[in-house]
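Anyone able to model this chain together with zinc ion?
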Amino acid sequence: MSYEVRDRDLLARIGRLHTKSGTIETPLLFPVVNPTIQPIPPSELREKFGFEALITNAYILRKRFGEQPAKMGIHDFLNFNGVVMTDSGAYQLLIYGELDVKPEEIVAYQEQINVDIATILDVPTGWNVKRSYAEETVNETIRRAKELFKIKTRDDILWVGPIQGGKFTDLVVKSAREMGKLPFQIHALGSPTKVMENYRFDVLVDMIMAAKMNIPPDRPLHLFGAGHPMMFSLAVALGCDFFDSASYALYAKDGRYMTEMGTARLNELEYFPCSCPACSRSTPEDVRSMTKVERERFLAEHNLYACISEIKRIKQAIREGRLWEHLTARSYAHPSLLQAIKKLDKFKEFIERHSPVSKPSGLFFYSGIDLVRPEVVRHCIRLRERYTKPPKAEILILIPQTRVKPLHKTSEFKKLEKAIKKAFNSWPENIHVCAYDAPFGVIPMELDETYPLSQHETTFPLDAEIITYVAQQSADYVYRMDYRVVVLLHSPEDWGDAVLKAIEERCRVKGIKFKYFELKDDWEKMVANFLSELLGGKS
Ligand SMILES: [Zn+2]
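re: yes, here you go
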């Protein structure tokens, strides 16, 4: 196995990829090195910035330098002793339309120059294209992929199988399935650059998921041309393991300054919102007065630091099981990012199935956007598919979950328990207590210590989306289970009347006796009285 996973959160993974020049850890950013123009020399990328790997372009190398990289070996040629990946020229094909090289020549050339990770010459789909053209690019890429395994002569190079199809997600699915059948070690999703430039992160989500759901799960996925720190967490959360960035240099050339929350123009900055070594020793004014070359170098350095530190923050979030919190915080960088997160609703069950069940930490819930979190989805599925109420339970008492958890340790529950035991001498077996909780919905009391049902904090006042969700979950639960009587402890201050109305309506439809009490003054005595009249208690 060339790739082993060491830690996971959502679809993200911290993993190790073994190559002939060393092991690299994912998620990983490959800085793009243009062999003809190098604002930061490759040796410095490793020594100064800590990059263990870089990506360069086999087509440009071959065209500009011919046999020289083959004679020297790519590592010596670039003066870089880490892992070298090559792209094949597909990007140039996208820009110029035609290349003066055959696919098999690019395969042979990558073997000759001794790269560690190589890419077949795929045909990129691009953005504004007709479906019939997109279909051709998918089919031709698959044909060339099959050809690779007949013509390659070495077994120590890892090969990347690019997935095409662009915005036509059914074609991405087809491409992913066909490429996944071939013995590639890595896959890459092509053509996302335009989608990202146009801030169509919602389309990007569809493209990534179409690929991710259809390749073998044990292979890393590279997102081609994704080099902005503001979108790394989204892509990583959806299971992208590799990125490459030419942007750090391209943005620098254009006077643009990257941050994890977007892009700024050097001309508009009065302060640097960054403490990287470059920014710590200068002000924007100093940098504006530099020569063009110096300025470009400065911005390229900062942009690289901005990318590296975001990748590190993402890795730490994966370790802590807090990638969702990190991702949602980043999604406020741009409305279209938040829109993309909202779109995850479509994929929430797939994400749930592949997300780890237990985590080192409790969970924070802020708003309705958190309803697609795997933990919330998982509780809903398990309650629906696996849970049955205690066999003798006939009467359900629903108590709102408060900030104190678990339910059986709350003062509300203790009061209720005391009043009921007083009325009946002991707890009647036919009375069952559940909490209704934001955002999990119904939590049966016997499960209230199960992770993460008590290990979470939610923002109050609750937002409307969460209240609506919990009301619906509670009403569905009541409808599914065969209780004879439902007693709701109503807390209008936190919940309005949505839960009350939803449950009342379902009870009416199913002919269940329904009663509610407001959580104030002597509510527990009123509940006990009601129950003892109903069941004939001692009072
Ligand atoms: Zn900086």
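The chain has 24 helices and 20 strands.
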